[in-house]
Amino acid sequence: MTPEPNADTHPLDQYRDPSDAAFVRDVAADVAAHFGGDLMRMRRANGYSNATWVGDGIAVRIAHTPVDMARETALVRALPREVGHPEILGEGTAEGHGWIVTKEVRGQNLHEVWPTLSPVEQQQAVRQLWARAHIVHDASSSLRTHVAAYGGFVPATLGDATTAAGRATDALGLSSAQQSRLDEVIEEYFRAAPLVEQSVNHGDLALMNALWDGEVISLLDFEFAVLGPVEIDLCRLVCEARVSEDGQQEDSNAGAVALEITARHMDPVHGRALLHGAAVLDQLRDLDIWLGHDDAPGRVEDWRPCRLLTDLLDTEGGYLGPLL
C-alpha cells in the first residue's frame, strides 16, 4: 500500500510513495547544485515518468524509477539542431536513477499555455509540433542505432500486447465483441508494422513535450523514442489535438489540422490499421499506469484511458473516426 501523501506533496507526486518522491527530489537538488542551480528557486515542470525542475539557467530531469538515460542522451546529441532540443550539459545516474541536465530554454510548456492560445495559434502549434517530429523521422537513417523497436506504449511482442489487452478486458469488463475487436486491432497492427518504412518516432508526441514562445521552439523528452511506423507519432498528434483533459472528443480547427496532417503522412495501404493499433496500444499503456494507482479517483470506466479505449473499439473509431 502506498503511504499517505502529506500536505507538502506535489500534485505530480500524489500517486507516488512519498519516500520515493523525496529521494528523487534530494537527487535533483544535489544535481542542480553541481550545475550552479538551487532547487528551491526552480519550478516543477510537467511530466509523469520523470521529475523535472527548471530555473537558474538549467533544467534537471530525474527518472522516478531506476532507469539509465544514456541511450536517450546519445540520441539527443545526434538529433538535427532544427529539432530544437536544449543543449545537454551533463548526465549520469544516482542509485540507478538516470538524470539529465540541459540548458534552460526560454519558453512555456505548450500543454500549460494551450488554453490561452487563439484557434489560429493552436493550428500553428500543431503544424509546428509535427514539423519538428518529422525532422526526426527524416533523420532516421542516422538515428536508428540509438533506439529500439519497442518502448513507451509499443510492446516488444504481440504476446505482450495481448497480455495487456487481457488486463484491460478484466478491468473494464469488456463484452466478448469488444474483446474480439481489441484482439483484432492489435493483431492487425503487429501484422502491418514490419511491412512499412521504419522511422525514429518521438514516441510521446504530446503538448507537454514541447516549448512555446510565440511558436513551437523545442521538442523535448525523447525517453520513449522508438523505431517503427510513423503512425506511432501520428496517433498521438491527433489525440492531443482532438481529445480534452477528461477524455472527451473535441472538434476544433487544431483537430482538423491534425487530421489533415495524418491523412497526408499515414501509409496509403496499411495506415489505418497502424494508426488504430498504435492508438489502442497507447491507451492500454495508460490504463496500466492508472491500474497501478492504489487510490485512482472515480470508477474505472470513467478513467480517461478507459473512455478512450472503449471509444476506439466502437464502430465509429473514437477520436480517429474521420480517418478510419
Description:
The protein has 324 residues and is α+β, with helices and mostly antiparallel strands. It folds into two domains: 93 residues, 2-Layer Sandwich (Phosphorylase Kinase, domain 1), CATH 3.30.200.20; 216 residues, Aminoglycoside phosphotransferase (APH), C-terminal lobe (Aminoglycoside 3'-phosphotransferase, Chain: A, domain 2, Alpha-Beta Complex). The chain has eleven helices and ten strands. The strands form three sheets. The protein has a five-stranded antiparallel beta sheet with strand order 1-2-3-5-4, with helices on both faces. A three-stranded antiparallel beta sheet has the order 6-8-9. Strand 4 and strand 5 form a beta hairpin. The radius of gyration is 19 Å and the shape is globular. The termini are far apart. The N terminus is likely disordered. InterPro entries: AGP_Transferase, Aminoglycoside_PTrfase, Kinase-like_dom_sf. It comes from Brachybacterium vulturis. Keywords: Transferase. Pfam families: APH. This is Phosphotransferase.
